[in-house]
């Protein structure tokens, strides 16, 4: 007999995913804000990151983040925060050559330039699901932060479908997330994360890159398992 899972059990898992993707999208979509860093630090949010008990690699990344905060007071010391802010800017914004370009197209195309076929594919997927990019994010659609934000968006849609008791839509949205992750994020995030780990000046971003890479791998496996289980009311 095929294994079964209740909608409410899936909801609990999706709330955990919402927590994880909210953290990841915020730290990779743009330079860190002092306001969010303060919340993240004072509420010990890294300690509550999903799957850390099941993945030593995720736990290692979290440990690096914790060690960074023990050494640097980014909440009260402006110089420490400025160094963290610059670390992101230097690696992923510019003005110099980027050690860790944040766009999928740089990694998957023969020529490392933006706005190629994968960018168009991502844009069409966003449009299909009504995902709108905020005006302040003047970025190519395949930016790592936007792709993470899109998964956060799909996860929210999935939670809404659970509230409506729409099992068919839940299954469809889970499959779409799995497909998007496998066809886009997991195609370039391992190399992107490696570049951050090799080039970051702060232990914070080295740790965050590890969390990003191994969380996506773990989440892809979770989605695969969910799609092989019968969902019941």
UniProtKB/TrEMBL annotation:
SUPFAM superfamilies: TorD-like (SSF89155)
Superkingdom, taxonomy of origin: Bacteria
Pfam annotation, one family: Nitrate_red_del
Record has Chaperone as a keyword: yes
InterPro entries: DMSO/NO3_reduct_chaperone (IPR020945), TorD-like_sf (IPR036411), TorD/DmsD_chaperones (IPR050289)
Keyword terms: Chaperone
This protein's name: TorA maturation chaperone TorD
Native organism: Anoxybacillus andreesenii
